[in-house]
Write a structure and sequence with these properties.
By secondary structure, this protein is mainly α. The protein contains 10 helices and 4 strands. α3 (32-53) packs parallel to α8 and α6 (104-117) packs antiparallel against α9 (228-241).
Length: 291
C-alpha cells in the first residue's frame, strides 16, 4: 500500500520501506503469518515458561511456618491452608468479573504485584517459634504489632489473592493466543493451549532447580531463617525479569491474519442472514395468528 513506503527527497535514494524503518518487522518477520507465529506462539510460550521457571521461596516459607507453629500449635497449619484456599477462591470470583484481566498491562501489573507481595513475609522471618519470647510481629518501628499467626494469615491472603489473579490472567492470555492462532479448528485450539499449559509444569520444575542454589547462598537452615529476606528479594527480581518477553506477545492476533478477518466477515454475514430469517419467520407467525 501507499503507507508502506516513504518517498525520499531527490538525491537521497528512491524509497525507504516500512521494514527498514522498523527493525522489529525484520525480527518478527515481514509477512502476517510470520508475525502471527512469533507473537502468537513463540513469545507466549517463552513468557509462560519464564514466569513459572522464576525461582520462588515457597518451600522455605512452608519450613518457616512449620518452625514457628507446629511444635506448640500444630492446628495452625491446616488453618492457614483454609485461609489460602478461601483467598484463592475469592480471587477467582473477582477475576471472572474483570474481562480485561488477560490484557498485557493488567498481566504485567498482576505479576509484579504477586512478586512484590511476597516481601510481606520479611518481618515473619525474624519471629521466634510460638512459646518463646517476641511473640508478636511488628512493622513500622514497633508501632504496628500483631500476633504471628494473624500476621501470617494476613500475608497469605494478600499473596494468595495476587498470585491467583496473576495465574488466571496468564492462563486466559495463553487461551486467547491459542484461539487466535488456530482459527476455527477446535482440535488445534486444544492442542496449542495444552502445549502452552505444559510449559507451566516444565517451568515449575526448572524453578526448583534455580531456587536450590539461591537457598544455599542465603544459608537458610531449619533453625535460622535470617537469609530469607535476601531470598525473597532475589525471587522478586527473577519474576520481574521473566516479564521481558511480554512486549512481544500480541493478544489481538486476528488483526495480523487477513484470512481470519475474512472468516469473521463471513461469520458476521451469516449471523445477519440468520437474524433476518428469524425476523421474517416471526412476522409470518404473527400474520397467521392475526388471520
Amino acid at each position: 500500500s501507499s503507507s508502506s513506503a516513504v518517498t525520499m527527497p531527490p538525491g537521497r535514494g528512491a524509497t525507504t520501506t516500512m521494514a527498514q524503518k522498523k527493525p522489529s518487522l525484520l525480527l518478527l518477520g515481514r509477512s502476517p503469518s510470520a508475525r502471527l507465529f512469533v507473537r502468537g506462539l513463540i513469545a507466549p510460550a517463552v513468557l509462560v515458561f519464564a514466569l513459572n521457571a522464576a525461582p520462588t521461596a515457597g518451600v522455605q516459607l512452608s519450613n518457616l511456618e512449620y518452625y514457628l507453629f507446629f511444635d506448640a500449635k500444630p492446628c495452625y497449619l491446616p488453618y492457614l491452608s483454609l485461609v489460602v484456599a478461601g483467598a484463592s477462591l475469592g480471587a477467582c470470583v473477582l477475576a471472572a468479573r474483570v474481562k480485561t484481566i488477560a490484557s498485557l498491562v493488567p498481566l504485567a501489573a498482576l505479576v509484579s504485584l504477586s512478586a512484590a507481595a511476597t516481601l510481606v513475609f520479611v518481618p515473619l522471618a525474624r519471629a521466634k517459634p510460638v512459646g518463646e519470647e517476641s511473640g508478636r510481629v511488628c512493622v513500622a518501628s514497633d508501632h504496628l504489632c500483631v500476633g504471628r499467626f494473624a500476621y501470617d494469615a494476613i500475608a497469605h491472603v494478600l499473596t494468595a489473592t495476587a498470585s491467583e489473579l496473576a495465574l488466571v490472567a496468564q492462563t486466559t492470555l495463553t487461551l486467547r493466543c491459542a484461539l487466535a492462532l488456530s482459527g476455527n479448528d477446535g482440535t488445534s485450539d486444544a492442542a496449542i493451549f495444552g502445549a502452552l499449559l505444559a510449559l507451566v509444569d516444565a517451568g515449575s520444575s526448572v524453578s526448583g532447580w534455580l531456587a536450590a542454589p539461591l537457598v544455599a547462598k542465603a544459608k537458610i537452615s531449619f533453625s535460622d531463617f535470617s537469609g530469607l529476606p535476601w531470598l525473597l528479594r532475589a525471587c522478586v527480581y527473577a519474576k520481574l525479569l521473566a516479564l521481558l518477553p511480554l512486549p512481544f506477545v500480541n493478544v489481538d492476533l486476528d488483526d495480523d491474519d487477513p484470512d481470519k478477518e475474512d472468516d469473521r466477515d463471513d461469520e458476521d454475514d451469516r449471523d445477519d442472514a440468520d437474524d433476518a430469517d428469524d425476523a421474517d419467520s416471526s412476522t409470518r407467525d404473527v400474520a397467521r395468528s392475526e388471520a
